[in-house]
Amino acid sequence: MSEINLSDIHKSFGKVEVIPGVSFSVERGEFVSLLGPSGCGKTTLLRIVAGLETVSSGRVDIAGTDVTHLPPEKRDIAMMFQSYALLPHLSVAENVRFPLRMRGIGSRDEQNERVKTALDTVQLSHLGDRRARQLSGGQQQRVALARAIVSRPKVLLLDEPLSNLDARLREDMQVELIEIHKNLGLTTLFVTHDQEEALSLSDRIILIKGGRIEQEGTPAHIYAQPSTSFASQFLGSANMLSAVVEDTGCGPMAVLGDGQRLPLALDEAARGAVSLALRQEDLVLSDASDAGNGAGLKAKVRARVYLGARNRYVLELAGASLRILTGNDQLFARGDDVSLTIAPERIRVLAP
Amino acid sequence: MVSGTPVWARYFAVIFIVCTALFLLAPLFVVMGVSVSESQFISFPPQGFTLHWYEKVLSSDAYVSAAWTSLWIALTVTIAASLIGGAAAIALNRRSLPASGLMSAALLSPLVLPTIIYAIGMLLLWSAIFGPISPLALAIGHTVIALPYVVRTCLAVLADTDPFLEEAARTMGAGRLQRLAFVVLPQIKPGLLAGGFFAFNISFDEAVLSLFLRKPGLTTLPVQIYGQLEFSPDPSVAAVSTMMIGLTIVLLIIIDRTLGLGKIASV
C-alpha cells in the first residue's frame, strides 16, 4: 500500500508552471529520492507533500487519506530542513520535545522517555541540556534528525539535509540515515542534487528535470540503464558524443563527427543519428604511439587534473571534450596523442 | 594603538573624544550641580550643598501629578508601540504585505518629519473630530513618534532569524497561535524589549507634542519643567531633571541585567 501518493500535480508560481503534471507514489517503508539539478522542482514537490506549498491542481494522499487541502500542522509528517531549523532559544531536549508538545502526544513522562530514546538513537543523549546554537553543524544535524523521528510520523521528508556538512560527516550521516530508516521502517522521501547520495541511500530514485519525471527505478537500474542523455549525464556524469549508426560487414558501427568508427554491441538498434553515452570509468586510455592500439579512438590530451589516487583527463575527440578518470600508472601531458578504447557493451546508445 | 596611524591623527582622535564627552555629558553634570546649589537662582557653578530643592519637588503637587501623568502615558505608549510595532515588523519581515516598502516608509517617517508640524496637525485633527484634548490624544501622538524605534529594533532582530523556523514548526504540528507563542515571540523578544525601552523614554521626555496637546490637568513632566523655567525659575527644575536622569539610568540597569546592553546596542 502506498504511503504517499501524488496524482497529476500541477503547480504554478504566478504565470510560471514549475510542476506540469507529476504523479508518483512511495510505498510504506520505502526510501525514495527525488534527484535533480537545482531549480528542477524537486524541493517544490517535497514541500507539496509537506503541505508548505499548495497545489494548483492534483491530489495528495498520505496513508490513504486525501490531505490536499490540509495544512502541514494537520498532516502526519516530519521534515528535516537544509538549515536544520532548530529553535535557538530552546535546549536540545526541548527542541526534540517540540513536536510532541505541539501535537499533544503523551504525558510529560512519556515525552521525556521518547526524547531520551530519540537522542540515544542519534547518540546525543549527553547534550540534552545544551542550547541548540552551541552545537557543531554535525550535532545540530543529529538533533534535527532526532526531532524528526521522535513523533514517529507516517512520513519522513528530508530536504537536502546533508548538503551543509563536510564530506566526512556526510558519509557518517548517510550510514546513520540508512540504519535509522531500516530500524524504524519510516516511509522516507529524500530530496537531493547529489547523485552519489541518491544512489547510496535509496530504494528507488525518481529523476526530475524541468518539473517532470525523467526516469525512475532502483539505483542499480537507473545507473546502468539511463534512458535519456540527461539521465546518463546526471547519474555518473557520462560523456556524450553525437554519432551516426551504420551497418557494416562486421556489425553496427558508430561513426563520429570526424569519421572515426566505434563498434557497437547492438542487435537490432536504432539506425541513424544517436547520442553515445560513455562513462568516465569505462574508458581506457593508452599511448597512441604504442603498436597494437590501432583499434582505439584517436584523441588529444587537453588537460590533466591530479586528484591524488587518480587523474582526470580532459580529452578532445571529434570536436567534443571528454572527461575520463584513470589511475597513476601511465601519465600523459597536455598535447599528447592518446588512444581510447571501450568495451562495446558498455556503450549506451540513446536518442540524440 | 594601530600602527601606521599618523601622530596628528591620534591627537585629533583624542580631541574628538574629549569634545564628544564634554558636550554629551557635561550639561548633565551642570544640571546635577545646580540641583544641590544653595542659591535661589539657576546659576553655575553651584554654591554650597542642599537637598532643599528635591524636597520642594517631592512636596509639590504640580510636579508629582505631572510625573504621574508622564508615567501613565509613557507606560501606555510602551505597550501600544510594542504591540503595534512588533506586529508591523513581523508582517514587514515576511514581505507578505502589498506595498510593504511604502508601509515601512510610512511607519518610519516620524523619525524625519518635524514633530512640531505633526503636533499642530494632531491638535487640529483631534479637536475637529473628538473635541477637547484628552490623555488618549497625547498617548496616541507619542505612540506614533515612538513606533519607528520599535519597528526598527524588531526588524533588526528578525533579520537575523532563520526564515524556515516557522515552516519547520508547522511540520511539527504547531498551529498559528502556537507558532506565535513558541517561535515568533521568543525570537522577537529582544527587539520588543529594546524598542519598548526606547518608546518609554521617548514618551517620558517628549516636550513638543505635550506642549500642544495639553489642557489643565494634563501636564507632563517636561511641560511642567518648561513652565516652571519660564515663570519662576529656581533649582527645583534642576532637581526634577536630575531625577529624570536617575530614572533613565535605573531603566538602563534593569535592561542590562535582564537582556544585556550589548544586544540593544547591536540593533
Largest interface: A-B, 24 and 18 residues
Largest sheet geometry of chain B = none
Level of helix content of chain A?
Answer: 10-25%
Number of strands of chain A: 20
Cα gyration radius of chain A (Å):
25 Å
Helix content of chain B: over 70%
Helix/strand order of chain B, N-terminal first = HHHHHHHHHHHH
Reading side by side through the largest sheet of chain A, how are the strands ordered? 6-7-8-3-9-10
- Note the overall shape of chain B: globular
Sheet with most strands of chain A: 6 strands, mixed
Query: Uncertain segments of chain A of ≥5 residues (pLDDT<50)?
Result: none
Strand content of chain B: under 5%
Characterise this structure.
- The complex is a heterodimer of chains A (352) and B (267).
- The model of chain A has no long low-confidence stretch (mean pLDDT 87).
- Helix content of chain A is 24%, strand content 36%.
- By secondary structure, chain A is of the alpha+beta class.
- Chain B contains 12 helices and no strands.
- The model of chain B has no long low-confidence stretch (mean pLDDT 89).
- The chains are: A alpha+beta (352), B mainly alpha (267).
